[in-house]
Amino acid sequence: MRLSDETLYAGANVIAIQGFGTVQIKLTLRDGSRRNFDLLDVAYVPDFHTSVVSFRRLYNNNIHWDTKNLCLTWGGDVFALTPIRFGQWVLEYNEIDSSTLSKAAFAAVNSRLPKRPLQGTLERWHQRFGHIGEDGLRKLMREVSGIMVTPGGTNEFRNCETCRLVNSKRIISRRPRERSIIAYDYIHFDLIEVKRVFGD
Questions:
Q1: Fewest CB within 10 A of the end CB: N or C in the chain?
Q2: Quick check: 71 and 80 in contact, CB under 8 A?
């Protein structure tokens, strides 16, 4: 196997590829017999619970997928069968030992179990709920399950810069402006600092 430091994206996760190599699988033919088939440049990703084959690479080698007849064709002839197992088309299917069923791909999970509570400091929950007021946030903590407040942070909503800027009142300066006598005597920059917000 050729080691690799590459990664792949699966949803919101970045998963490491351990290496690349050749994998031999057994394809099922029409008469029920099986034949060996080598897959080249296969990415070894231990975190994947099932193996996947690139249809693009099959297509580039003139192997086409007939979904109606559940088979792969090559040169117009049936190359291998692609039966459906648990709602997935498969090239090779191996029965799973009942003792290892809990580790199998597509294993059922009891979704009725309560989820772990989300954690965060008062300051972070204040940001998560769109800078909710302190009274409303504390009431939310009492009434809603699944929210856990952890120690840390300032826990001072009065010091929230975003809230202070939003709630600030306009102050008009009455100081007289000094006019310059020569060009470029005074230069003013109308710049503000843009800070990253929570979740950015």
A1: C
A2: yes
Q: Let me know: does 77 contact 85? Beta carbons within 8 Å.
A: no
177 vs 175: CA distance, rounded Å: 6
CA angle 104, 109, 111 (to 5 degrees): 165
What's the domain range around 126?
118-166
CB 37 within 8 A of CB 25: yes
Looking at the structure, do residues 65 and 139 belong to the same domain, yes or no? no
**Residue 197 domain-assigned (yes or no):** no
Q: Are residues 82 and 9 in the same domain?
A: yes
Q: Which tens digits make up the pLDDT trace of 25-77?
A: 899 888 888 889 888 888 888 877 778 888 888 889 898 988 889 999 988 88
How many independent structural domains does the chain possess? 2
Is residue 76 assigned to a domain?
yes
- 87: region left, alpha or beta (phi > 0 left; psi from -120 to 50 alpha): left
Same domain for 73 and 15 = yes
Q: How many beta carbons lie within 10 A of that of residue 33, not counting itself?
A: 9
